[in-house]
Write a structure and sequence with these properties.
The protein is an alpha/beta fold. Helices cover 28% and strands 30% of the residues. A hairpin with a 2-residue loop joins strand 25 and strand 26 (456-465). The radius of gyration is 23 Å and the shape is globular. The N and C termini lie far apart (51 Å).
């Protein structure tokens, strides 16, 4: 079968017509309804002028309509571009114009925000989902218009290498960069993740992530591949772990996938205590370091689940995994594990010592992005051509992640290339300091960053305490057991919270300002 994402919905509608595809609170949509409503949206978009290969924005929060939006756009032969509703108007405008987006799909509650980007400089022409026009320049089409559209399959031929979606992330310059994935790379991710985690139509996934983060692809792409159900977790539940714990139990979720922060909040708020979690068979996490002390507590709390560390930048979706079960020996760090199928890994710019090799991880995979939108030079810069193990030239993506390969072939994440600094000529990995801080029992959260004072890097550590106080002298002694003197932070700041991005990752840009 062709590696085209819309085929997944068609197959599931045929094999599991009445099974729930997506659910949010008391709203649910079956695979038959998802197919038909996606056809209606696709026909509406085509009628509004969308051509094959066009980019269509999705501007909404975690919501029921997002699933229909994704597949309606794909059935129209276009690519979906999820946009963070919390971005300032200038950043939204950057994305809209960079992708030459003419149509955005949204909801009435975002009319005011959309009106803020309806300028003469905007490429936007139409908004689907508003009851009235947001401005004189931009027209609206209500959801009623979509529901009245034809439910016949649109006449659009889709190829494997057609663009399916573009996810924007902040570059090092602060300007957004669009990661372009095709139907083929998206389909490969759906297939490989379904096979790796043995997912079936009986599985129920908790989708904790916004659509504009790559973690969402398991809910929106993988579950339709197997005919399973995706629970779209409402915004309010993500802020109240106790209610989220209740939802996991009540919905009988079998698969959970999020950044570690969400799991830590569930743990520390006691949201999982006295809950029936026997249905939960997979706990997947990725995107950030998981403090080993919290991981061990959660691991003991959910003995029926298999835990898996998911690793892979958005540019490759996923490339490695490491499964834990009750027989796994837990060390001081969680390994990245091994490559999954259709994927090759290598290290470049390496150094060796004591049977270990350290270098930048590079990845060649069927799930690899096509490139960065409108940034050919950046795509080239982040690519390297190497001979693969079969002696064939292959293009690898340079992750920017520094990893260690042990003598038994195990990969351990050390830090980011752009989070590596020099102090008195010595290389210092800021992520490594963070990991050691997080292993201290008195520390709940930690963020380590560097600020240049003159020509010298000063290391700062923002700390959220798990207890009332901490002795800085004793903390330095604790760090000195694992770190050289030059790598111990010169400045500690006890804070109530650490700024994070919408994906739950530490926002180092705010910290280092």
């Amino acid at each position: 079968m062709s590696r085209i994402l819309t085929h997944n919905v068609l197959r599931s509608a045929e094999n599991h017509p009445d099974r729930i595809a997506f659910k949010q609170l008391d709203q649910a949509i079956t695979y038959t309804q998802l197919r038909d409503q996606s056809y209606q949206l696709a026909n509406t978009l085509i009628q509004a002028g969308i051509k094959k290969g066009d980019r269509v924005g999705i501007f909404m929060n975690r919501s029921f309509e997002s699933a229909v939006s994704v597949y309606g756009i794909l059935f129209a032969g276009a690519a979906y571009v999820p946009i963070d509703t919390n971005l300032p108007p200038s950043r939204v405008l950057d994305v809209v114009n960079d992708c030459n987006i003419k149509i955005i799909i949204s909801k009435q509650q975002f009319k005011k925000k959309i009106a803020g980007i309806c300028t003469e400089q905007s490429s936007l022409v139409t908004v689907v989902g508003l009851d009235d026009d947001p401005s004189d320049q931009v027209k609206s089409l209500g959801w009623k218009t979509v529901r009245d559209a034809d439910t016949q399959a649109p006449d659009r031929k889709i190829a494997e290498e057609d663009i399916a979606y573009i996810i924007y992330t902040s570059g090092t310059t602060g300007k957004p960069k669009g990661i372009v994935h095709t139907h083929s790379s998206g389909y490969s991710y759906a297939k490989l993740s379904a096979e790796l985690y043995d997912l079936t139509y009986t599985d129920i996934l908790g989708n904790h992530s916004h659509l504009h983060y790559d973690i969402s692809t398991m809910g929106y792409l993988t579950m339709p591949y197997v005919g399973g159900c995706t629970i779209i977790i409402p915004e309010a539940h993500t802020k109240f772990p106790v209610s989220l714990g209740q939802m996991i139990e009540q919905e009988g979720m079998t698969v959970w996938y999020s950044v570690p922060l969400a799991l830590i909040q569930l743990l520390t708020s006691q949201a999982l205590v006295d809950k029936d979690m026997t249905a939960l068979r997979w706990v997947l996490f990725g995107g950030e370091i998981f403090a080993i002390k919290y991981f061990k507590q959660l691991f003991e709390l959910l003995p029926n689940a298999v835990f898996s560390n998911v690793y892979g930048p958005a540019e490759v979706n996923q490339c490695t995994y490491f499964h834990f079960d009750q027989d796994t020996q837990l060390g001081d760090a969680i390994p990245l594990g091994q490559a999954w199928p259709e994927t090759l890994l290598d290290l470049i710019d390496t150094s060796s010592s004591d049977d270990e090799v350290v270098g930048e991880l590079v990845v060649a995979s069927s799930t690899r992005m096509q490139g960065y939108w409108n940034k050919k030079s950046l795509t080239k810069e982040k690519s390297v051509t190497l001979l693969n193990p079969n002696g064939i030239t292959d293009t690898y993506y340079k992750t920017g992640d520094i990893v260690k390969r042990t003598s038994i072939g195990e990969l351990i994440f050390i830090g980011r290339k752009d989070r590596q600094i020099k102090i008195r000529g010595y290389r210092v990995e800021l992520n490594a300091i963070e990991t050691i801080l997080l292993s201290h029992q008195a520390i709940k959260e930690a963020a380590v960053y560097a600020i240049k004072e003159g020509d010298i890097n000063q290391i700062y550590a923002n700390i959220v305490l798990d207890s009332d106080s901490i002795d800085e002298v004793l903390l330095n002694k604790y760090l000195a057991q694992s770190l050289p003197t030059y790598a111990i932070p010169q400045n500690y700041r006890i804070v109530q919270s650490i700024p994070r991005t919408g994906a739950g990752k530490v926002n180092y840009k705010l910290l280092s300002k």
